[in-house]
Amino acid sequence: MRVDELMAIGPVIPVLTLPTPEVAVPLAKALVAGGIRVLEITLRTDAALEAVRRIGSEVPDAIAGVGTLTRPDQFSAARQAGAKFAVSPGSSPDLAAAAGTMPWLPGVATASEIMAATRTGRHHLKFFPAETSGGIGALKALAGPFPDVLFCPTGGINAGNAADYLNLANVRCVGGSWPAPADAIAAGDWDRISELAKAASGLSMTKTLAE
Length: 211
What we know:
- The protein has 211 residues and is an alpha/beta fold.
- The protein has helices at residues 3-8, 24-33, 48-58, 73-81, 93-99, 111-118, 135-143, 162-166, 182-187, 190-201; strands spanning 12-16, 38-42, 63-67, 86-87, 104-105, 107-108, 124-127, 150-153, 174-176.
- The longest helix has 12 residues, at 190-201.
- The radius of gyration is 16 Å and the shape is globular.
């Protein structure tokens, strides 16, 4: 599956930081039940790769990938765990080389970084950190010089502003942690997470670049 296909599956890709691998399967099932299938498991905890393995073997409707990938060797570990895609907060030539054919969403925050990414043939990019990099205003401005680039803004995106981002013509989806808050994961409140996922997956996208 290509990056553009992954980004088109739903309006929100949840960014998940898991305390233990034991929560991976019930969490994934709760998100899928709410309509969210593409899951970014961050490499911020030791549970991440085992969580990806468990989701891959026990939740067939979920598409689990890894996030916060910052070193080339992490691509190999992600592949071995069965990750379907990878996401990075930034980009570099060694990461691009290590990605190979694996669907990869590199992060950008400036016009120069976007130009560097497009020169490697990548036109689907993570805009990070979205809110502190200019947010909606920046994405509107970037649409002019980069009409062939689609973004997944992440960083400061929540239930209150996600729809505003999704309304932009150059935004294909958004990333954020709000569909699966840490307190709900810790409490095993899978029903709450399913309801949050249902609301997130139902966000409408009217696609404008109105001033």
